[in-house]
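Course assignment 3, question 2. Fill in each field.
Student: A.L.
Task: Predict the tertiary structure for the chain below.
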Amino acid sequence: LEIEIKGNKLKDLIKELRSRYRDPKIIEYFDFIPTILVNGLNYETLKHLETELKDGDVVTFLPAEFPLSGG
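Answer field:
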């Protein structure tokens, strides 16, 4: 899915997705801030929601309970 957003930060993308897709399940999904990868890197290792995005970046949203490591 390719989306144009106003602004250039991860938080702007989330705001756009919430306004475009008003399904309560989607809004609830982002209330829990799932694991977010920007070009394969966890947004927590970048600048969190202030991470700047540019053309061609790949943003992946994983459910909050999605395991990223074994245990």
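Instructor remarks: The radius of gyration is 12 Å. The helical segments are 10-20, 24-31.
Grade: pending
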